[in-house]
Amino acid sequence: MITVTDTGSGISDVDRDRVFERFVRTSRQDATRSQRSFGIGLALVRDIATAASGTVEIASTGPHGTTMRMTLPLANP
Predict the structure, then answer these.
(1) Is the separation of the CB atoms in 32 and 9 below 8 Å?
(2) Spatial contact of 17 and 46, defined as CB atoms under 8 Å apart
(3) Helix (H, G, I), strand (E, B) or coil at 44
(4) Any idea of the CA torsion for 9, 72, 17, 41, to the nearest 10 degrees?
(5) 53 in the Ramachandran plot: left (φ > 0), alpha (ψ -120 to 50) or beta?
(6) CA atoms of 69 and 4, how far apart (whole Å)
(7) Domain residue extents for the chain
(8) Fewer Cβ atoms within 10 A, N terminus or C terminus of the chain?
(9) Is the pLDDT of residue 57 over 80?
């Protein structure tokens, strides 16, 4: 299991289901990030996890950060 936490502005409830879609930019991202962001990062993370029979999820989010969790199976348990 890999857990990553940031201290950014969090992910709104409205955008929670959308952040894993390719090329989606949430309303907060549009307002605060430069135009160089393509909205592809979490979609790629999800695709990599799925290809390895794993999962990725939003473990928690709040006004001051988000925690993402990626779980991958052991190759030979």
Answers:
(1) yes
(2) no
(3) helix
(4) 60
(5) left
(6) 7
(7) 2-71
(8) C
(9) yes
2-71 CATH, one of 3.30.1360.70, 3.50.50.60, 3.40.50.300, 3.30.565.10? 3.30.565.10
Apex 5 CA angle, 56 and 65, nearest 5: 110
Listed residue (2, 47, 3, 4) closest to 22, CA to CA: 47
CB-facing half-sphere around the CA of 60: CA atoms within 13 A: 8
Between CA 27 and CA 7 the distance in angstroms is: 18
Q: How do residues 3-53 score in pLDDT, each as one tens digit?
A: 999 988 888 888 888 888 888 776 654 445 445 566 788 999 999 999 999
The DSSP symbol for 31 reads: H
